[in-house]
Specification:
Elements: E1 3-7, H1 12-24, E2 30-34, E3 57-59, E4 65-66, H2 69-77, H3 90-118, H4 127-146, H5 157-172, H6 183-192, H7 196-200
Parallel strand pairs: 1-2
Antiparallel strand pairs: 1-3, 3-4
Helix pairs in contact: 1-2, 1-5, 3-4, 3-5
The structure holds benzoic acid (BEZ).
The site of benzoic acid has 7 residues, from helix 3.
Amino acid sequence: MKMKLHYSPASPFARKVRVFALETGLDRDIEPHAITVSPVNPNSELASDNPLMKVPTLITADGTALFDSRVICEYLDTLHSGRKLFPANGPARWQALRQQALCDGILDAAVLCRYEAAVRPEQFQWSEWRSGQLAKIAAALAALEREAASLEGELTIGSLTAACALSYLDFRLPEMKWRDNVPALAHWFGKLSARPSFHATAPPV
Ligand code: BEZ
């Protein structure tokens, strides 16, 4: 029996899982199920599988529901016999996990900015709050720029998450012009985002 992935085409966290599945060949074993999610209109279709009603949620072949993207990706890495995207141990593992955490943090802040602008009624919007999120993103990008060389080479969960985060900034916060201050990162992203797995999972225009 196939696994089932609840996802939203615009969700960068769901995109992590979709890219991961394509890169490891597991997409053949996963039935994608696109749904709409919103922080103010939780999708009750998800409630029985994930009380947080968030995407991505993966239903494994034995019916277990897994979330969030970190847990799902690590689970998927146990299911294939190719090169692992989660390094098994040592400094490479902690670097990949730390980069994943850093770039998930960029995404958390960027999604909050997106919701603030697109979902919160205008009279309740708070520009200092948005500036605070943007400052977090800028600081995380600067940190990533300093270690851009470490993103080169074989894909890991760290570099995969970085690419999903940068692509989401293009999608939802293009006015940030993130490339302006991080040339090494921009160069690396240009190469990585040409992979078929990234093309196949591009957010809707
Ligand atoms: C978005 O439309 O940006 C979005 C959709 C689902 C989850 C997170 C973000």
